[in-house]
Amino acid sequence: MPKTTKKESIASKLAKKSPMKTAAVIPGTEGHQPVSAFENAMIQFDEAAKVLKLSSSQIAVIKQPRRITEVQLPVRMDDGSIETFTAYRVQHNIARGPAKGGVRFHQNVSLDEVKALAFWMTYKCAVADIPMGGGKGGVIVDPSRLSVSELERLSRRYFAELVDLFGPDRDVPAPDVNTTSQIMAWFMDTYSMHHRNHVPGVVTGKPLELGGSAGRVMATSRGLLFATRRAVARKSEKLPGMTVAVQGFGNVGSYSATLLQDDGCKVVAISDVNGAFHNPNGIDAHKALAYSTKNRGLKGFDLTGMAKKMKNALDILELDVDILCPCALELQITGKNAQKVKARYICEGANGPLDHTADKILDKKGSFIIPDILCNSGGVIVSYLEWVQNNMGYYWTEERVNSDLERFMNKAFDAVYDTMKVHKCSMRVAAFAVSIQRVSQASELRGLYA
Ligand code: GLU
Known about the structure:
- The protein is an alpha/beta fold.
- The chain folds into 2 domains: 22-53 and 217-378 and 401-450, Rossmann fold (3-Layer(aba) Sandwich); 67-208, Leucine Dehydrogenase, chain A, domain 1 (Rossmann fold, 3-Layer(aba) Sandwich).
- It contains 14 helices and 12 strands.
- The strands form 2 sheets. The chain has a 7-stranded mixed beta sheet with strand order 9-8-7-6-10-11-12, sandwiched between helices. A 5-stranded mixed beta sheet has the order 1-2-4-3-5.
- The longest helix is centred in the last third of the chain and has 26 residues, at 398-423.
- The two termini are 25 Å apart.
- The chain binds glutamic acid (GLU).
- Glutamic acid is lined by residues 100-102, 124, 174, 176, 204, 351, 376, 379-380, 383.
């Protein structure tokens, strides 16, 4: 029998440091302190490792990122000057296949964040049971202040600088926050020019004209819809008539809103960097999407009369709705505001939107949380299907892709749900238990090379 690790978890260390030890605190949330995304990810790992009774040797091989690369990218700006941008690629684990995960362009990117995101990718691919490991990249940049040609030079320089890390059998990037199919096309072209070969399988999320997959653009949201349908059915409830709030109106949030609406839900609030917009009678998500595409965001959406602007954008998280979809960034619901969250279903379109204290509080309140590594795995599932199609050079219809996606999502959901029942734990712990078990087994079967 493997021994449980004796290492103290970050959660318990933080709890000891904290002066808050009163009885009013929800059990398990004592000593809440803000944690970083990576610290939070490590706490999530520790909780599932405890359930699995993993040995310290097993943990040593699969918990931490295996390769971290940081580079400075010099880029010629349109005015002739040169600016440098800090960029990362983290390969967390490749036991089950090539590293897989997006590249994020955002002013708040940090190494801590990219490590957390790479970690989640390892376990996301494993919970979805696709043969890929986990990786993530990021560039510290606000892309909205770059011209299209500056953005192209930055994207190409990122890929060229890290070209040895990437490859269809090594590490396969994809879109993430602020990176588009056009950027994937530049990545693919840069790699193909270096290799003097046409290599579409080196990135996913490409335009259809360049070997992208039908269904990829809406895949994350469609996966979220499938998972939500499954959750609601398990609780013997029905989606039609349920109210929805969506935080984040980028690729994932906007299509989640339209798909849930098409399934009969009423979207009552949406938000993006320009603020949160609320209408208890319902917002037409398709019209909101058209508005946001045309205006490059929801700025001024209240002036259309379709919704009122909320005073505080974060209040969207506290609305009395059936379904809350956090589809923006990490650590949006924490020990600070979780108590005020009223949604019965929390469908995590974003990666890491809840911290471990929020998890405890919301579990206690009875919210059903579909954790990120399960809920938003539709994107990487269809990325995998894109990679398969690239490797074969034969392309499927959107119906075929969507039905495969549904099969993968349902299978993953059921595995997590059943594990939750067996271990009497949360959906998050169950999702990590299922996926950590798979990564650990793959790793043990491979053994150590030297
Ligand atoms: N960036 C997406 C995610 O966080 C997609 C990753 C991929 O398709 O490789 O899951």
